[in-house]
Amino acid sequence: MALVSLRNVTKAYPNPNDGDPILAIDDVSLDIEAGDVFGIIGYSGAGKSTLVRLINALEPVSSGSVVVDGQELAGLPEKQLRPVRLGIGMIFQQFNLFNAKTVWNNVAYPLRVAGASKEKIQARVDELLEFVGLSDKAKNYPEQLSGGQKQRVGIARALATEPRILLCDEATSALDPETTHEVLALLKRVNEEFGVTMVVITHEMDVIQTLATKVAVMDKGRVIETGEVFDVFSDPQNASSQTFVGTVVKGQPSAAEVAVLRERHAGRIVTFSFRDGDASQSSVFLSLAQAGIEFELVYGGINEIQGRAFGHLTLALRGPDAVIDGVLADIAGASEVTEAA
């Protein structure tokens, strides 16, 4: 059984102009298994943050079913939702710390709300501050911390009640690249060492590539594609997914880009697509060189997700057409080859 299961979920808001209701979530069905780091990506306005608020019942669904850890949330009274929420931690883009409380008291807050004993609070807060590397900042206030330190406090606070699920809503968007890398490494430890299932909402593709194991692509309130991160990134099936993935993963050049490449480079423009298990780049280059074909890399790149490589390299090839045709036919048996028209 999935730890989080959504079936035909819709969320509609009243139209301020008295027109038809505005659909933020449109007939979404999704399963998130225990232990997953499940990324949800899409452009702004795709419905990502609304979906998160449905999972922890901060927003009621308009229709459909939301089951979290075996508990149906749709229609559940607020009193019965509170214990469910204790099992769901939340990390925010802007940290949402209490500025008037010390780091220690920020982490202790959800435990106090839950009615934990002083002894348990002391032990748990000390443990978490050590885990996130902030034991020496326990008496500091948020204004004395860097952005990365604030987010680590946010992570410690989200873990205070030992949740099974952690929701991360654009958790690194306010951080610089180096700090983002540190926070992602910490979140990976949370998943691996504590076994916490994560739902990661982001528009940053690097976050998904680094952290997630599975991903769903959203567009206009709908989930348009879902699967293993490597599969969705290396071979997106939906046109909107291809466009979104293309913001960080260069695919085959468009007709306009091919025209520019032809102005700048002599030869035939050919794209070689690589996926884990296909012919390697080196073997392709070796085949071209051994046939006496001159080649120049003019477009594309290779990406890596969790040790698996994929990408597209577009080359300008120069040599006798018959020789090039023969080599391309041989390579096509082990790797996808596309020649620009």
From TrEMBL:
Stored SUPFAM superfamilies: ACT-like (SSF55021), P-loop containing nucleoside triphosphate hydrolases (SSF52540)
Purpose: Part of the ABC transporter FtsEX involved in cellular division. Has ATPase activity.
Family, similarity comment: Belongs to the ABC transporter superfamily.
GO cellular component, one term: plasma membrane
InterPro entries: AAA+_ATPase, ABC_transporter-like_ATP-bd, ABC_transporter-like_CS, ACT-like_dom_sf, MetN_ABC, MetN_ABC_transporter-like, NIL_domain, P-loop_NTPase
Source species, domain of life: Bacteria
Complex formation: Homodimer. Forms a membrane-associated complex with FtsX.
Any Pfam family: ABC_tran
GO biological process terms held by the UniProt record: amino acid transport
CDD domains reported in the protein's UniProt record: ABC_MetN_methionine_transporter
Keyword annotations of the record: Amino-acid transport, ATP-binding, Cell membrane, Membrane, Nucleotide-binding, Translocase, Transport
PANTHER family from the UniProt entry: AMINO ACID IMPORT ATP-BINDING PROTEIN (PTHR43166), METHIONINE IMPORT ATP-BINDING PROTEIN METN (PTHR43166:SF30)
Domain ABC transporter: residue ranges: 4-245
Gene Ontology molecular functions: ATP binding; ATP hydrolysis activity
Protein name, per record: Methionine ABC transporter ATP-binding protein
